[in-house]
Amino acid sequence: MRILITNDDGINAPGLVTLEAIAAELAGPEGEIWVVAPAFEQSGVAHCISYTHPTMISQMGERRWAAEGSPADCVLAGLHDIMPQKPDLVLSGVNRGNNAGENVMYSGTIGGAMEAALKGIKAIALSQFFGPENASLDNPFESAAAHGAGVIRQLLDHADWGETDDYALFYNVNFPPLPAEQTGGMMATRQGKRPTSGFGIEAQTSPTGRRFLWVRGSEQAVETGAGTDVSANLAGAISVTPMRADLSDHSAVAGLAKALVK
Protein backbone atom coordinates (compact mmCIF):
# COMPACT_ATOMS: atom_id res chain seq x y z
CA MET A 1 0.00 0.00 0.00
CA ARG A 2 1.19 3.50 -0.86
CA ILE A 3 0.23 6.03 1.85
CA LEU A 4 0.58 9.81 1.94
CA ILE A 5 0.45 11.35 5.41
CA THR A 6 0.14 14.97 6.50
CA ASN A 7 -1.00 16.94 9.55
CA ASP A 8 -1.62 20.49 10.75
CA ASP A 9 0.65 20.46 13.82
CA GLY A 10 3.80 20.54 11.70
CA ILE A 11 6.58 18.30 10.46
CA ASN A 12 8.12 17.93 13.95
CA ALA A 13 4.88 17.19 15.83
CA PRO A 14 4.76 14.07 18.04
CA GLY A 15 1.38 13.13 16.61
CA LEU A 16 3.02 12.77 13.20
CA VAL A 17 5.44 10.23 14.68
CA THR A 18 2.42 8.27 15.89
CA LEU A 19 0.81 8.44 12.45
CA GLU A 20 4.01 7.31 10.73
CA ALA A 21 4.04 4.20 12.95
CA ILE A 22 0.38 3.52 12.15
CA ALA A 23 1.06 3.96 8.43
CA ALA A 24 4.07 1.63 8.58
CA GLU A 25 1.91 -1.09 10.15
CA LEU A 26 -0.69 -0.67 7.42
CA ALA A 27 1.69 -0.41 4.47
CA GLY A 28 3.79 -3.42 5.39
CA PRO A 29 7.41 -4.05 4.34
CA GLU A 30 6.59 -3.75 0.63
CA GLY A 31 4.61 -0.52 1.01
CA GLU A 32 5.56 3.12 0.72
CA ILE A 33 5.01 5.94 3.20
CA TRP A 34 5.30 9.51 1.98
CA VAL A 35 5.25 12.41 4.41
CA VAL A 36 4.35 15.91 3.25
CA ALA A 37 3.63 18.08 6.28
CA PRO A 38 3.62 21.80 7.07
CA ALA A 39 6.99 23.29 7.97
CA PHE A 40 5.26 25.17 10.80
CA GLU A 41 2.07 24.62 12.78
CA GLN A 42 -1.09 25.25 10.73
CA SER A 43 -3.80 24.54 13.30
CA GLY A 44 -7.10 26.26 12.57
CA VAL A 45 -6.53 26.85 8.85
CA ALA A 46 -9.36 24.46 7.86
CA HIS A 47 -9.35 23.73 4.11
CA CYS A 48 -7.23 26.76 3.27
CA ILE A 49 -5.05 26.66 0.17
CA SER A 50 -2.23 29.09 -0.64
CA TYR A 51 -3.93 30.45 -3.73
CA THR A 52 -2.33 33.90 -3.77
CA HIS A 53 1.31 33.05 -3.05
CA PRO A 54 3.74 30.20 -3.82
CA THR A 55 4.53 27.42 -1.36
CA MET A 56 8.17 26.56 -0.73
CA ILE A 57 8.87 22.86 -0.21
CA SER A 58 12.01 21.26 1.20
CA GLN A 59 13.05 17.64 1.20
CA MET A 60 13.85 16.50 4.75
CA GLY A 61 14.73 12.89 3.98
CA GLU A 62 13.70 9.94 1.83
CA ARG A 63 9.98 10.36 1.00
CA ARG A 64 9.79 13.15 3.58
CA TRP A 65 9.00 16.76 2.72
CA ALA A 66 8.08 19.96 4.54
CA ALA A 67 5.93 22.62 2.89
CA GLU A 68 5.44 26.23 3.96
CA GLY A 69 1.70 25.94 3.57
CA SER A 70 -1.49 24.37 4.86
CA PRO A 71 -2.34 20.66 5.09
CA ALA A 72 -4.40 20.98 1.91
CA ASP A 73 -1.34 22.53 0.23
CA CYS A 74 0.70 19.56 1.42
CA VAL A 75 -1.75 17.10 -0.10
CA LEU A 76 -1.71 19.01 -3.39
CA ALA A 77 2.10 19.04 -3.35
CA GLY A 78 2.23 15.32 -2.70
CA LEU A 79 -0.26 14.43 -5.43
CA HIS A 80 0.89 16.80 -8.15
CA ASP A 81 4.60 17.33 -7.59
CA ILE A 82 6.33 15.00 -5.15
CA MET A 83 4.89 11.51 -5.57
CA PRO A 84 5.55 9.65 -8.82
CA GLN A 85 2.30 7.68 -8.39
CA LYS A 86 -0.87 8.63 -6.55
CA PRO A 87 -1.37 7.11 -3.11
CA ASP A 88 -3.89 4.45 -2.22
CA LEU A 89 -4.70 6.30 1.01
CA VAL A 90 -4.18 9.69 2.63
CA LEU A 91 -3.97 9.94 6.42
CA SER A 92 -4.06 13.29 8.22
CA GLY A 93 -3.00 13.68 11.88
CA VAL A 94 -2.69 12.46 14.51
CA ASN A 95 -3.89 15.84 15.72
CA ARG A 96 -2.96 17.07 19.19
CA GLY A 97 -6.47 17.58 20.52
CA ASN A 98 -9.90 16.56 19.32
CA ASN A 99 -11.43 17.46 15.99
CA ALA A 100 -14.98 16.63 17.06
CA GLY A 101 -18.05 18.82 17.25
CA GLU A 102 -17.67 22.37 15.94
CA ASN A 103 -13.88 21.96 15.88
CA VAL A 104 -14.33 20.15 12.57
CA MET A 105 -15.10 23.42 10.82
CA TYR A 106 -11.75 24.97 11.76
CA SER A 107 -9.49 21.94 11.52
CA GLY A 108 -6.53 21.81 9.17
CA THR A 109 -6.38 18.07 9.89
CA ILE A 110 -9.86 17.73 8.39
CA GLY A 111 -8.86 20.05 5.55
CA GLY A 112 -6.02 17.76 4.47
CA ALA A 113 -8.30 14.72 4.37
CA MET A 114 -11.01 16.68 2.57
CA GLU A 115 -8.60 17.75 -0.17
CA ALA A 116 -7.64 14.12 -0.79
CA ALA A 117 -11.32 13.12 -0.95
CA LEU A 118 -11.97 15.84 -3.51
CA LYS A 119 -9.24 14.21 -5.61
CA GLY A 120 -10.97 10.84 -5.37
CA ILE A 121 -8.50 9.29 -2.91
CA LYS A 122 -9.56 7.48 0.24
CA ALA A 123 -8.79 9.71 3.21
CA ILE A 124 -9.03 9.54 7.00
CA ALA A 125 -8.42 12.28 9.56
CA LEU A 126 -7.26 11.12 12.99
CA SER A 127 -7.21 13.14 16.22
CA GLN A 128 -6.43 12.44 19.85
CA PHE A 129 -8.78 13.97 22.44
CA PHE A 130 -6.79 15.26 25.44
CA GLY A 131 -7.98 15.23 29.04
CA PRO A 132 -6.74 14.64 32.57
CA GLU A 133 -6.58 10.86 32.07
CA ASN A 134 -4.10 10.96 29.19
CA ALA A 135 -2.47 14.41 28.96
CA SER A 136 0.25 13.51 31.44
CA LEU A 137 1.05 10.07 30.04
CA ASP A 138 4.54 9.44 28.68
CA ASN A 139 2.77 9.15 25.33
CA PRO A 140 -0.50 11.10 25.39
CA PHE A 141 -1.22 9.68 21.91
CA GLU A 142 -1.26 6.17 23.39
CA SER A 143 -4.89 5.45 22.47
CA ALA A 144 -4.39 6.45 18.85
CA ALA A 145 -1.11 4.54 18.65
CA ALA A 146 -2.66 1.34 19.98
CA HIS A 147 -5.94 1.39 18.07
CA GLY A 148 -5.30 3.50 14.97
CA ALA A 149 -4.24 0.78 12.55
CA GLY A 150 -7.17 -1.44 13.51
CA VAL A 151 -9.70 1.34 12.97
CA ILE A 152 -8.26 2.17 9.57
CA ARG A 153 -8.25 -1.48 8.49
CA GLN A 154 -11.93 -1.79 9.36
CA LEU A 155 -12.76 1.32 7.36
CA LEU A 156 -10.75 0.14 4.35
CA ASP A 157 -12.31 -3.31 4.46
CA HIS A 158 -15.92 -2.51 5.30
CA ALA A 159 -16.84 1.17 5.00
CA ASP A 160 -18.70 2.90 2.19
CA TRP A 161 -16.42 5.38 0.41
CA GLY A 162 -19.04 6.91 -1.88
CA GLU A 163 -16.70 6.64 -4.82
CA THR A 164 -19.44 7.05 -7.41
CA ASP A 165 -20.86 10.17 -5.76
CA ASP A 166 -20.09 13.77 -6.68
CA TYR A 167 -18.43 14.27 -3.30
CA ALA A 168 -16.69 11.13 -2.06
CA LEU A 169 -16.88 10.19 1.59
CA PHE A 170 -13.96 10.56 3.94
CA TYR A 171 -13.78 9.68 7.63
CA ASN A 172 -13.08 11.63 10.79
CA VAL A 173 -11.73 9.50 13.66
CA ASN A 174 -11.33 10.81 17.21
CA PHE A 175 -9.70 8.76 19.97
CA PRO A 176 -11.00 9.33 23.52
CA PRO A 177 -9.04 11.13 26.27
CA LEU A 178 -8.00 7.88 27.91
CA PRO A 179 -5.05 5.48 28.10
CA ALA A 180 -5.04 2.75 25.48
CA GLU A 181 -6.24 -0.02 27.81
CA GLN A 182 -9.26 2.04 28.90
CA THR A 183 -10.32 2.89 25.36
CA GLY A 184 -13.60 1.33 24.32
CA GLY A 185 -14.76 0.18 20.91
CA MET A 186 -15.71 2.17 17.85
CA MET A 187 -18.95 4.09 17.43
CA ALA A 188 -20.42 5.42 14.18
CA THR A 189 -21.31 9.03 14.98
CA ARG A 190 -22.50 12.31 13.57
CA GLN A 191 -20.82 15.64 14.21
CA GLY A 192 -21.99 17.26 17.42
CA LYS A 193 -21.98 20.86 18.59
CA ARG A 194 -21.03 21.94 22.08
CA PRO A 195 -23.54 24.33 23.70
CA THR A 196 -20.64 26.44 24.98
CA SER A 197 -19.43 29.65 23.38
CA GLY A 198 -16.80 28.09 21.14
CA PHE A 199 -13.92 30.30 20.11
CA GLY A 200 -13.67 33.82 21.47
CA ILE A 201 -11.29 36.76 21.59
CA GLU A 202 -9.09 38.08 24.40
CA ALA A 203 -7.58 41.51 23.79
CA GLN A 204 -4.21 42.59 25.19
CA THR A 205 -2.11 45.71 24.92
CA SER A 206 1.63 45.24 24.39
CA PRO A 207 4.30 47.22 26.30
CA THR A 208 4.61 49.44 23.20
CA GLY A 209 0.92 50.29 23.30
CA ARG A 210 -0.10 48.14 20.36
CA ARG A 211 -3.30 46.15 20.64
CA PHE A 212 -3.31 42.40 19.97
CA LEU A 213 -6.13 39.88 19.86
CA TRP A 214 -5.72 36.29 21.02
CA VAL A 215 -8.17 33.62 19.91
CA ARG A 216 -9.12 31.39 22.81
CA GLY A 217 -11.12 28.19 22.99
CA SER A 218 -13.70 26.96 25.45
CA GLU A 219 -14.34 23.83 27.52
CA GLN A 220 -14.04 20.69 25.40
CA ALA A 221 -15.42 18.04 27.76
CA VAL A 222 -19.04 19.01 27.13
CA GLU A 223 -21.77 16.55 26.13
CA THR A 224 -23.28 17.04 22.68
CA GLY A 225 -26.04 14.44 22.71
CA ALA A 226 -26.56 10.79 21.87
CA GLY A 227 -24.96 9.58 18.68
CA THR A 228 -22.46 12.43 18.41
CA ASP A 229 -18.68 12.35 18.19
CA VAL A 230 -17.91 14.37 21.33
CA SER A 231 -20.25 12.37 23.55
CA ALA A 232 -18.86 9.09 22.22
CA ASN A 233 -15.32 10.20 23.08
CA LEU A 234 -16.34 11.34 26.55
CA ALA A 235 -17.91 7.90 27.07
CA GLY A 236 -14.57 6.30 26.23
CA ALA A 237 -15.29 5.22 22.65
CA ILE A 238 -13.50 5.92 19.38
CA SER A 239 -15.80 8.05 17.23
CA VAL A 240 -15.91 7.43 13.48
CA THR A 241 -17.81 10.07 11.52
CA PRO A 242 -18.44 9.88 7.76
CA MET A 243 -18.08 13.25 6.05
CA ARG A 244 -18.26 14.91 2.65
CA ALA A 245 -16.98 18.17 1.22
CA ASP A 246 -20.58 19.27 0.68
CA LEU A 247 -22.08 21.93 2.94
CA SER A 248 -25.51 21.84 1.33
CA ASP A 249 -28.46 21.23 3.64
CA HIS A 250 -30.23 18.79 1.35
CA SER A 251 -33.25 18.50 3.64
CA ALA A 252 -33.93 22.24 3.27
CA VAL A 253 -33.77 22.47 -0.53
CA ALA A 254 -37.40 21.52 -1.23
CA GLY A 255 -38.74 23.94 1.37
CA LEU A 256 -36.55 26.72 0.06
CA ALA A 257 -37.76 26.09 -3.50
CA LYS A 258 -41.37 26.57 -2.36
CA ALA A 259 -40.47 29.69 -0.41
CA LEU A 260 -38.82 31.23 -3.46
CA VAL A 261 -41.78 30.68 -5.78
CA LYS A 262 -43.55 33.99 -6.46
From TrEMBL:
<feature type="binding site">
    <location>
        <position position="43"/>
    </location>
    <ligand>
        <name>a divalent metal cation</name>
    </ligand>
</feature>
<dbReference type="GO" id="GO:0005737">
    <property type="term" value="C:cytoplasm"/>
</dbReference>
<dbReference type="InterPro" id="IPR002828">
    <property type="entry name" value="SurE-like_Pase/nucleotidase"/>
</dbReference>
<keyword id="KW-0963">Cytoplasm</keyword>
<keyword id="KW-0547">Nucleotide-binding</keyword>
<dbReference type="Pfam" id="PF01975">
    <property type="entry name" value="SurE"/>
</dbReference>
<comment type="function">
    <text>Nucleotidase that shows phosphatase activity on nucleoside 5'-monophosphates.</text>
</comment>
<dbReference type="GO" id="GO:0008254">
    <property type="term" value="F:3'-nucleotidase activity"/>
</dbReference>
<keyword id="KW-0479">Metal-binding</keyword>
<protein>
    <recommendedName>
        <fullName>5'-nucleotidase SurE</fullName>
        <ecNumber>3.1.3.5</ecNumber>
    </recommendedName>
</protein>
<feature type="binding site">
    <location>
        <position position="9"/>
    </location>
    <ligand>
        <name>a divalent metal cation</name>
    </ligand>
</feature>
<dbReference type="GO" id="GO:0004309">
    <property type="term" value="F:exopolyphosphatase activity"/>
</dbReference>
<keyword id="KW-0378">Hydrolase</keyword>
<dbReference type="GO" id="GO:0008253">
    <property type="term" value="F:5'-nucleotidase activity"/>
</dbReference>
<comment type="similarity">
    <text>Belongs to the SurE nucleotidase family.</text>
</comment>
<dbReference type="InterPro" id="IPR030048">
    <property type="entry name" value="SurE"/>
</dbReference>
<dbReference type="InterPro" id="IPR036523">
    <property type="entry name" value="SurE-like_sf"/>
</dbReference>
<dbReference type="GO" id="GO:0046872">
    <property type="term" value="F:metal ion binding"/>
</dbReference>
<feature type="binding site">
    <location>
        <position position="8"/>
    </location>
    <ligand>
        <name>a divalent metal cation</name>
    </ligand>
</feature>
<feature type="binding site">
    <location>
        <position position="95"/>
    </location>
    <ligand>
        <name>a divalent metal cation</name>
    </ligand>
</feature>
<dbReference type="GO" id="GO:0000166">
    <property type="term" value="F:nucleotide binding"/>
</dbReference>
